[in-house]
Amino acid sequence: MTSPAPSHAGRYPAGSLAFPHRGLLGIAGLAPHEILFLLDEAEQWVELNRQPHKRDDRLAGLTIINAFFENSTRTLLSFEIAGKRLGADVVNMAVAQSSVKKGETLIDTAMTLNAMHADAIVIRHGSSGAVRLIADKVDCPVLNAGDGQHEHPTQALLDALTIRHGKGLSRDSWFNGLTVTICGDILHSRVARSNILCLTTLGAEVRVCAPPALMPAGIEAMKVTPFHDFDAALKGTDVVMMLRLQQERMQGQFIPSPREYRYLYGLTPDRLARARPDALVMHPGPMNRGIEIDSNVADLDGRSMITRQVEMGVAIRMACLDVLTRRARGVEGWA
After folding, report:
1. Residue 253: what pLDDT?
2. 20 cis-preceded (ω within 30 degrees of 0)
3. Is the pTM higher than 0.90?
4. Shortest CA distance to 182 belongs to which of 158, 206, 164?
């Protein structure tokens, strides 16, 4: 049996009750203390990743498969780095060269991966619900690295951790009193959906802003305030989170032109001035500079958290891999 997991001095239920889920398929359904638990678990890895020696071998002997059916830079690399810094054997599945290209079904692919006795599988897929389908067919924990327009849970967690650090909030603090404005392609964005679920659960006021064609119908049911006027949405906000236009998910014309979109919804220095003087600027990437965000805002020293989000992404993914493999590793309290 390995050593006990870090203690949080009674802030959460003991052992596996702190996070009883077999995998991480979405933010929906997570209790506030479960989200905070993952954020707190990530703090140790934030510190480790800033040290010259960035390795902890607690996952030594475990195999993690990254099965990315969609292209990715930040998410794939951060999951790979996270696994390796924890000492695991990490395998990136080359989908372009896999049997999927020969017509193999998703279920057959899942059963193949399961037969290899992986200890965790990280999946990114273009279809909503595909990750759950695979999770139901395998014996190990599954982490959702983005599925269609559904969810991207680790992105929401890393964004929450970035806000915590950027605003200097203590670990005991929720996000009550913070106003977060998310602007861009809300309709197609799994990042927006997971962030809305995460931030509202932690007590933040969330505003969403988009052109009418890119605003989901009935979005108010998610406890957010919708805007079509970006200037109005920015007034008094503490955090501005920009999203790119997901042209790959669009069929038909959703905006008149990129130039007009920038005029109405691009984050410029003049627009940012409508937010609070210390408002943070965020973007999950990849950015389309000069369309949804100007370079002199994206690179604004002291207020742009965009590279900090990447840093927090490695720590969050280390925390998720650690927590979700504790049962298999026989960590005390996680049997």
Report:
1. 54
2. no
3. yes
4. 206
